[in-house]
Write a structure and sequence with these properties.
The protein is an alpha/beta fold. It contains 18 helices and 22 strands. The strands form seven sheets. A seven-stranded mixed beta sheet has the order 16-17-15-14-20-21-22. It has a five-stranded mixed beta sheet with strand order 3-2-1-5-13, sandwiched between helices. A two-stranded antiparallel sheet has the order 4-7.
Amino acid sequence: MGVADELILSIDVGTTNCRAAVISKTGVIVKIAYRPIELLSPIQGWFEICPKVLWGIILDLIKTVTAGYESSLRACGISVQRNTFITWKKDTGEYLHNFITWLDMRSTSLCESWNNNCFISLGRWAAWAIGSIVRSRHMICAASFNVKEKAIPMRLKWVMDNIPEAKKCQKDDNLCFGTIETWLVWKLTGGKVWATDFSCASSTGIFDIWKLTWCPVMTTLFGNPMNILPEVRCSNSFFGLLDESLNLGFSIPITGVIGDQQASIFGSQLFDVGDVKLTLGTGIACNVNTGSKTHPTSHDIYPLIGWKLENEGVFYVAEVIAANGGRAVEWTVSSGLINNIKEIDDIARSVPDSGGVSFIPAFNGMEVPYRDPFAGTSLFGISLATKTKSIVRAVLESQIFISKHVLDLMFRFYGKPQSMRVDGGASRSGFIVEHLVQLSRTNVERSECVEGSLMGAAFLAGLGVGVYGSFADIKQHVPLQHTLFQTQNTSLEEDENLFRLYNIWRESAHRCTQWHAAASR
């Protein structure tokens, strides 16, 4: 088989859409297809995905992109949104509930109660004191630990407490827990493989990222049974073969499994310690490659496993994440403010400023720096003269200001890089990127390839079957193209005006905190 024939099937399951692509060894996307994912909200604050619908979407995408290329496919790679999970019966595969997504807020009261518990507070203080004395990174991390709705422990506890059949199946050793990649591997292999990878496991909140095993202390503390948790494998391990029962006309190995943020880092070829990436997707996230070491920091920066390859050590990343990113941009279309997302930059640039309007996206609370699940989405500063264009510009400005929050926090601990990489759907907005460069005073490289997560999963799968031999081999075969946005010598007046708007936005954001607190009681 020649180099040109070495193709990889890559699947990326995001929050609002799912995509699949056939990618060549040289990084050419031979064929790609997308499908939207419907988020269900049966109760305010709950966000679910129907597994039967999602499975149908994924099968359709696989068949669409692989038609005509079946004989040239070498492997399959999978990238997924993290911390969205489901449980099912081990013997029959029957689901006990829909996917509970990472956006879901049903465990808010549980998290609040746990975080404010006096014994937990005492434990944090003790961990900080011991960690400072013995210089233990484990203890220092424990001292800043807070349970979040986005992590899995409390939502899984909710399932075990509120779905009687889950408890019964667990006692009978007949219950499987899985985040999307675990469930997808299970489905694609015909139920033969029940496994996840280190990157996805590290995001759950119940995995020890240093000992590389499920943490019995955390699972016991949160009431998450150990016997329902899947095996954890390296990111480029063999995860089984696509099962013949799928009637795809081919069977290839799954040799790449990774979380979406980590996949995006891998796909952007940020293999070196200190590399920085900002993702402007459904959420806004900043990641720093910290190599073989983790660096305990604050409540808002978390060490995660980036990836672990077969016969190699662990690569860690530090992460800061804010939930409300691209969803705010998508809202401008769904709300009828604009007709087409492609118009948004032109509309924002058609007015000199937002006319005093501040938009605060808090569709499911706010993260850094407020950490408030009860915050409410709001528009401030509207007057009789306010036009739609001003509101649209304010929405884009909100993405810039949230990114500023995230970057300031990361740079405070890791220093400001000479340049950083940016990706995600909202990074296509020149308006956002240009103003982000001005506000952060950091050069930005925007990849010409918008499918970082698909590329990352494909690279891992390629490493798993020998299409690539090393990081250097990937870089040699797939040279990335970027657009460089450099800091400009803008006038003092322009800089002062942007920072003034930023400070107004921060004050507006503060006023949104605890907006829904009374209603939740």
